[in-house]
Write a structure and sequence with these properties.
Layout lengths: L1 E4 L2 E5 L1 H8 L3 H16 L5 E2 L8 E7 L2 E10 L2 E9 L2 E2 L2
Parallel strand pairs: 2-6
Antiparallel strand pairs: 1-2, 3-4, 4-5, 5-6, 6-7
Length: about 90
C-alpha cells in the first residue's frame, strides 16, 4: 500500500498492514498521529545497530503499553515495516 501525505510517499509493509487491521479506531488514530510525528521529524526514532542499521524504531504509548514502530526514511519516502505492542507482536 502506498499513500502520499504532505508530499511524502508512505509505503506500508504487508506485516504492518496486517498489524493495523487488529487495532481499534482509537488505537489507529494514535498510530497515525505518531506517523505524523515521524514525518515532521524523521530522526525521532532510535537508529538500530548492526545488520538492522538501516532501520529506526520509534517508541510511544498505546493504551498504557509501550508500542514500537519500525521504519526506514529516504529523502521523500517513509517505509513502515512493523508495529509491536508491549510483549504482543502485531507483526
Amino acid at each position: 500500500m502506498s499513500e502520499e501525505q504532505n508530499g511524502i510517499d508512505i509505503y506500508e509493509s504487508r506485516r504492518f498492514e496486517k498489524a493495523i487491521k487488529k487495532l481499534t479506531e482509537s488505537q489507529l488514530k494514535v498510530v497515525e498521529d505518531e506517523i505524523e510525528k515521524i514525518i515532521e521529524n524523521p530522526e525521532i526514532g532510535e537508529q538500530k545497530k548492526g545488520v538492522l542499521a538501516f532501520l529506526r524504531v520509534h517508541k510511544f504509548q498505546l493504551d498504557k503499553q509501550q508500542a514500537l514502530l519500525g521504519y526506514l526514511w529516504f529523502k521523500d519516502r517513509l517505509e513502515i515495516y512493523l508495529l509491536q505492542l508491549g510483549s504482543r507482536k502485531l507483526l
